[in-house]
Design a protein that fits this description.
412 residues; alpha/beta; 8-stranded mixed β-sheet; 14 helices
Length: 412
């Protein structure tokens, strides 16, 4: 008999969609190990800000994807991070509440009910609702902490900890930590934070690539000399939002115009149009549309280095697990990071690339130039080191094996 788990994450995506695919990849791996998986997510894609599968009058849709029972739920749409975003979050929470509430008794009647319910943040209201349903039906509950909410709203968004909304989320956060059977954090530095808030049974299972998909058959041979017709190519893939500090990247590009270095920004987000306008006149910055995760390895074959950038936010020093960083390791690409704390420390101590201070265009330009000026042999060594650490720590297969063991222990 197959063990079963229900996974709730508003922004879970398949490989056909842009954005993070952690839930899909974990679920696919667990399915191959004998688990029956149901995923409940929103059809409204965070990167594209559009519906993918549901028609106008559809409230939900269920389908089988790679053995996973996937349930797409209708939510309130939004374009910018204003009041409509909050309605979007709560509309998913309400929808998933009724879906779970109706779904579990139905499974009791017609087939086995889920043995475990798992919710992945940062959408705390949906996780809170999932915990209440788990308690109602006496099911073990696992909380996966992808981002530390509401702390990120205080550190990055400038919200006051004394505001009603932050107090409301903080109460919800503590209740989740204290009542979860197990807590999984993606950023190693988050363990201390969660423990101080009352969390117990905490495991670190970071983001990480499928090493069979994200691989480099051989490290790209560089030209004898980089020229403006054959430049040193640096790729950024991901969201174009406030947290990503891409204005810093464009300002750094202005300082590098005389060198044959090309910055290619791939993705989408609320700031993209303004960023394109801001970069007008720069020949060393190119914007490309977001694309499904499965196409990223092919795209990045062309890269000489990969850039990971975030704002200067205290929380980012210990509380982030950027998937694109570990993808770069696996693809044997040198990295450029400006995330002070755990990320920069890892890059520096393992000789994986170069680092800079956040929100400092001059420092970023210096770091990029430093990598550009290194010998091909030095960059090759960084590339090889990246693949080694991906295999040792961030392998998706290792993470799935650990997940599987945690789930089995909970059922026992």
């Amino acid at each position: 008999m197959m063990s079963s788990i229900w996974i709730i994450n508003q922004h879970a995506n398949t490989l056909e969609m842009p954005g993070h695919t952690r839930q899909y990849e974990i679920a696919e791996g667990l399915y191959k190990k004998g688990w029956e998986i149901d995923i409940f997510s929103s059809d409204f894609n965070l990167s594209k800000r559009k519906f993918y599968y549901l028609r106008v009058l559809d409230l939900s849709r269920s389908e089988k994807i790679a053995g996973i029972n996937w349930h797409w739920l209708k939510v309130f749409p939004y374009r910018k991070n204003n009041w409509r975003r909050y309605i979007n979050i709560f509309s998913f929470s309400i929808h998933v509440f009724f879906k779970l509430l109706i779904g579990i008794p139905h499974h009791y009647l017609y087939q086995k009910s889920p043995q475990i319910i798992l919710a992945s943040s940062p959408q705390l209201p949906a996780a809170f609702i999932s915990l209440l349903v788990a308690k109602l039906f006496k099911k073990p509950f696992i909380l996966e902490v992808r981002d530390l909410y509401p702390q990120v709203l205080i550190d990055q968004g400038g919200n006051k900890s004394s505001s009603f909304y932050i107090k409301f989320l903080t109460t919800m956060e503590k209740f989740l930590y204290r009542n979860s059977s197990h807590i999984i954090v993606l950023a190693k530095g988050s363990k201390k934070y969660v423990k101080e808030k009352g969390g117990l049974n905490i495991s670190w299972l970071p983001n990480g690539p499928n090493l069979n998909q994200f691989k480099c058959e051989k490290i790209k041979k560089e030209p004898k000399k980089f020229t403006f017709s054959e430049p040193f190519k640096i790729y950024y893939t991901g969201a174009h939002g406030e947290a990503n500090s891409l204005y810093t990247v464009i300002d750094a590009a202005r300082l590098l115009e005389k060198l044959p270095i090309l910055l290619i920004l791939v993705g989408d987000g609320p700031e993209k149009n303004d960023l394109i306008k801001y970069s007008k006149g720069l020949r060393n910055v190119i914007f490309k549309d977001s694309m499904p995760k499965k196409k990223i390895p092919h795209l990045l074959k062309d890269a000489n280095a990969i850039l990971i950038t975030l704002k200067n936010v205290k929380l980012f020093r210990y509380g982030v697990s950027p998937n694109k960083l570990y993808d770069a390791y696996a693809l044997s690409k040198p990295v450029i990071t400006n995330i002070v704390g755990d990320i920069n420390n890892e890059v520096e101590s393992n000789y994986l690339g170069v680092t800079a201070k956040p929100e400092d265009p001059e420092a970023l330009a210096i770091a990029i130039k430093k990598l550009f000026m290194k010998t091909p042999e030095e960059r090759k060594k960084m590339s090889q080191n990246g693949r080694k650490i991906a295999e040792k720590i961030y392998s998706r297969e290792k993470i799935i094996n650990s997940y599987n063991q945690i789930l089995k222990n909970i059922i026992k």
